[in-house]
Amino acid sequence: MITGIRFPSQEIGSDRAVLRDWALRAAGAGFSYIAVNDHVVGVDPVARPDYGAGFPDAARRTAASYSVHTEFHEPLTTIAHLAALCPDLGFSTGVLVCPQRQTALVAKQAAEADILTGGRLRLGVGVGWNPVEYEAMGADFRTRGRRIEEQVSILRALWTRRTVEIDGEFDRVVGVGLAPRPLQQPIPVWMGGWSDVVLDRIGRIADGWYHGGEFEPGVLRKTERIVAAAERAGRRASDIGLEGAVELRYGLDGIEGRARQWARAGATHLVVDPMHAGYRGSGHLDHLARIAERLPLGG
Question: Whose CA is closest to 215, among 165, 158, 254, 161?
């Protein structure tokens, strides 16, 4: 298993020196990659009292969770900066809400990030869950599932072809191409999500499943569904990666065993998530060493 760490975007603050030191310590501790998560805007619950209504898990997805006060560093910009500091690390987005963005622009930004990381970018994408954020981005929340499938096809075409000719349902990308193109041909596209429709989509078109959470018994059933979808699509299930997580909000005790659960489940990647563990700003720096002591990291 390749072990990385999630960038504590919501808690680390905006002090450039702290961001630099955190990345350098993560590299020095032996982590193989840094994953950066994504939200473009937060919602003001006073101005939008309807926010959260109708969410499948309204208790978790409340205004307090992602409000105008919640900090999210933009993933691809952050990755480009951290790659200059840590040229030997890999990087991933975990996950970028792709359907609320312009497809060609995502392709361009990801291609540049892949070049700057030396061909070590994994683009994790997902459909998201926040209709208010889609509204702010000028995108249609209702069609996000269909759109992400078309986007993956267009992204791969732009990354690997000199000229692209795709006139799709959502994007017209005809007679155009990217220069420079990424080092990876194409950049691996992983997908996040847990619903059956997402798992089927991963089996059909994704390079990996970004689970992004702690191991739970349902993981095995879900991986079986991905395998079945891959086989129906004529793909080799062994080509589809799996990324689990150990979340430090549940404490450091036992993280070795929790990591082994993911290894037994066939995970190819494991991301350590330090958020919501009670640390803020520079407090995340010293926490890195304590994490690294518990896991068999290289580097």
Answer: 254
